[in-house]
Amino acid sequence: MDEEGYTVALDNKRARFTSEQEQLFEVGVFLFLVIPSMILSFFAEQEQDIDFLITALAIMVRDLALLSLILFFLWRNAEPLSSIGWKKENMGREILVGIALFPLFFVLLGIIGSVLQGIGFNMPETPRPTFLTAGSMWQLMVAFVLVTVVAVVEETIFRGYLILRFLHITKSGTWSILVSAVIFSLGHGYEGSAGVGTVGIMGIVFAAVYLWRRSLVAPMVIHFLQNFIGIVLAPLLGLIR
């Protein structure tokens, strides 16, 4: 085959949408990379001497690597970024929607956490482990970058990418949302069973907003504000005092 023919064949291959079996294999490889590192969060309480900066950099490198893998999958399958909710249209409005929804989300989250604790789910004595607590202004600057990266990447992974793939595999929107929310919650084992349950419900709410808006912008804003309060604002107020 000459070079021109090879190029045409390659373009045709990229243009066709992958089969369910190929998507299942793709998701399986992706989850094999993601889930083991997330399960380690259940043992994080025993590792309190880990430095914040090391943890933050490790999380950002891991998340950006996973984002790169997703972008590669989309490129290989000739799928536009808009297929996973990366849309420029009405971005300002979507940001305002996220900001407007956040107070309700924040209150709802507190109620859910209290209910779960009330029925026997456990919560760690300290609200956040030391390896996720910024202790200086320099660390707070890094923390701001961290919560930004996490909000963008985790919404891309757990809402945009996984829900899209699970929809094609399971043919069920409900199962797609639930499975992606469960996987999302696995990375928060250090927050105790009440925290894991709360994060799982967070994932369902984020998914509902994503499917409602058909865009990842509003969920990213809510996710960012939630992490910003806990990882940046709370330590900052403590330093001021």
Helix/strand layout:
Elements: H1 3-15, H2 20-39, H3 52-76, H4 91-118, H5 137-170, H6 173-185, H7 192-213, H8 217-240
Helix pairs in contact: 2-5, 3-5, 4-7, 4-8, 5-6, 5-7, 5-8, 6-7, 7-8
What is the gist of this entry?
By secondary structure, the chain is mainly alpha-helical. 74% of the residues lie in helices and 0% in strands. The longest helix is centred in the middle third of the chain and has 34 residues, at 137-170.
What features would you describe in this structure?
The chain is mainly alpha-helical and 241 residues long. The protein has one domain (48-240). Helices cover 74% and strands 0% of the residues. The chain contains eight helices and no strands. Helix 6 (173-185) packs across helix 7 (192-213). The longest helix has 34 residues, at 137-170. It is globular and about 50 Å long. The termini are far apart.
Summary tags:
8 helices, mainly alpha, 74% helix, 241 residues
Quote the average pLDDT: 82
| Secondary-structure-derived class | mainly alpha
Helix content: over 70%
- End-to-end separation in angstroms reads 72 Å
What characterizes the major β-sheet? none
Number of helical segments?
8
State the low-pLDDT regions, or none.
Answer: 5-10, 13-17
Order of helices and strands: HHHHHHHH
The number of domains is 1
Rounded to the nearest angstrom, the radius of gyration is 19 Å
Portion in beta strands: under 5%
Write down how many β-strands occur, each being a DSSP E stretch of 2 or more residues: 0
Q: What coarse outline follows from CA principal-axis ratios?
A: globular
